[in-house]
Design brief:
- It contains 16 helices and 15 strands.
- It has about 425 residues and is an alpha/beta fold.
- The strands form 3 sheets. Strands 1, 2, 5, 6, 7, 8, 9, 10, 11, 14 and 15 form an 11-stranded mixed sheet that branches. A two-stranded antiparallel sheet has the order 3-4. The protein has a two-stranded antiparallel sheet with strand order 12-13.
- A hairpin with a 2-residue loop joins strand 1 and strand 2.
- The longest helix is centred in the N-terminal third of the chain and has 17 residues.
- It folds into 2 domains: about 260 residues, 3-Layer(aba) Sandwich (Peroxisomal Thiolase, Chain A, domain 1); about 160 residues, 3-Layer(aba) Sandwich (Peroxisomal Thiolase, Chain A, domain 1).
- Helices cover about 35% and strands about 20% of the residues.
- Keywords: Acyltransferase, Fatty acid biosynthesis, Fatty acid metabolism, Lipid biosynthesis, Lipid metabolism, Transferase.
- Pathway: Lipid metabolism; fatty acid biosynthesis.
- This is 3-oxoacyl-[acyl-carrier-protein] synthase.
- InterPro entries: 3-oxoacyl-ACP_synth-2 (IPR017568), Beta-ketoacyl_synthase (IPR000794), Ketoacyl_synth_AS (IPR018201), Ketoacyl_synth_C (IPR014031), Ketoacyl_synth_N (IPR014030), PKS_Beta-ketoAc_synthase_dom (IPR020841), Thiolase-like (IPR016039).
- GO terms for molecular function: 3-oxoacyl-[acyl-carrier-protein] synthase activity.
Length: about 425
């Protein structure tokens, strides 16, 4: 099996556009969650009126302006999630100094970028237009803008990449699955370089209404949106919907060494599992997440005691955070693991950026890679009182303030509706 390393990072988040801006905002404790009440009557009528939106404005200020980030005509052809994916991919390629030009380079470079929901706006707007005006109101670009795999497709076409071209759509596990599956394509020799990640942009009243009806969204902080996402906190009451994209450049180790490029971290392990339990609720004992993490460590060939940090799925839901906490403690405590719960370091970056759905796993993988590269554990915002005493929330959840410590091995978790789970294990290269 060929070894896989990370050589480039690209990101679009509610904290800003670009890796450095998003990472610095995260470490400094900033929040990208705002009120969307005034966006229109559809939002104002919802029980949850907060969301983590990508800030709009000048690229010079680290914000999103499609006309500055894309080529002429792209905005018409691409849905928002694909636009975010293109921008993140460009940053990641530039960061990796990888610009494939020869036939061999292009044939050995692939793309694996997915989305959980895709272009919700196009579905809604076209449905309304078709209902009122019929066939001629449907744009010829409707289906191409709609398809999940067009994020990856546009990246492939932009750079002339002829390696594997795939997309995962596994709800909130999409980004992690995309990175893990892409790594396996490299490990098995199907590509030397993969552009991998996830993108999402579905902050729409109907999408939010659906999640709210499923009792998944935070509803008690409409007047104080920055407090709404509170992973592991006793007062947590649901997740905050977000948007953005995360893309990494994965590369076969010898290929990266031959180029002399910077290596952020090595992707050592990838574990998958299913809850086989419920459409939206996790098993309370956390068996599914535990299996995914165990398999990631087994694949990596490392023991639980060597895990320095876990970037948790930690979405701020009552059942989900408790189940993941149980899984983490089951994995890391006891024989082959750590002696005390306080030795377990785990945080959730969703306190700052909300839940980016299909992009979450990729963005959080980037934060995990940076925690290894820079020896910083990002904070869990709004963690004032760890969960109910009966839930045994007694680990170090990096409350409110980043902590500086050496991080050699880290896991990042993603779990999705349908009971699908993934865990990625990264380590320092060397």
């Amino acid at each position: 099996m060929r070894r896989v390393v990370v050589t480039g990072l690209g990101i679009v988040t509610p904290l800003g556009v670009g890796v450095r801006r998003s990472w610095r905002g995260l470490v400094d404790g900033h929040s990208g969650i705002i009120s969307v009440k005034n966006r229109g009557p559809g939002f104002a009528a919802l029980p949850s009126q907060v969301a983590a939106t990508v800030p709009r404005g000048s690229a010079e200020d680290g914000k999103w302006d499609a006309t500055e980030r894309l080529r002429p005509g792209d905005e018409r052809k691409m849905a928002s999630f694909a636009q975010f994916a293109i921008a993140a991919a460009q940053e990641a390629l530039d960061d990796a100094c990888w610009a494939p030009e020869t036939v061999e380079e292009r044939e050995s470079t692939g793309v694996h970028v997915g989305s959980g929901i895709g272009s919700f706006d196009d579905v809604y707007d076209t449905s309304v237009a078709y209902h009122s005006g019929g066939y001629k109101k449907v744009s010829p670009l409707f289906v191409p803008r709609l398809l999940i795999n067009l994020g990856a497709g546009h990246i492939s076409m932009r750079y002339g990449l002829k390696g594997p071209n795939q997309s995962a759509t596994t709800a909130c596990t999409t980004g992690a699955h995309s990175i893990g599956d892409a790594a396996r394509l490299i490990a098995f020799g199907d590509a030397n370089v993969m552009i991998a990640g996830g993108a999402e942009s579905c902050i729409h009243p109907l999408a939010m209404a659906g999640f709210a009806r499923a009792r998944s969204l935070a509803t008690g902080w409409n007047e104080t949106p920055h407090l709404a996402s509170r992973p592991f906190d006793r007062a947590r009451g649901g997740f905050v919907i977000g948007e953005g994209a995360g893309v990494v450049i994965l590369e076969e180790l010898e290929h990266a060494k031959a180029r002399g490029t910077r290596i952020y971290a090595e992707l050592r392990g990838y574990g998958l599992s299913a809850d086989a339990y419920h459409m939206t609720a996790p098993r309370e004992d956390g068996e599914g997440p535990l299996l995914a993490m165990k398999r990631a460590l087994r694949h990596a060939g490392v023991s639980p005691r060597t895990v320095d940090y876990i970037n948790a799925h930690g979405s701020s839901t009552i059942l989900g955070d408790a189940a993941e906490n149980r899984a983490v403690k089951s994995l890391l405590l006891g024989e082959g693991g750590k002696q005390n719960a306080t030795d377990i370091n785990v945080s959730s970056t969703k306190g700052a950026i909300g839940h980016l759905l299909g992009a979450a796993g990729a963005v959080e993988a980037i934060f995990t890679i940076l925690s290894i590269s820079e020896n910083v554990m990002p904070p869990t915002l709004n963690l004032e009182n760890p969960g109910d005493p009966t839930e045994d929330f007694d680990c170090n959840y990096v409350p409110r303030t980043a902590q500086h410590r050496r991080v050699e091995v880290a896991l990042t978790n993603s779990f999705g509706f349908g009971g699908t789970n993934a865990s990625l294990c990264f380590s320092k290269y060397g």
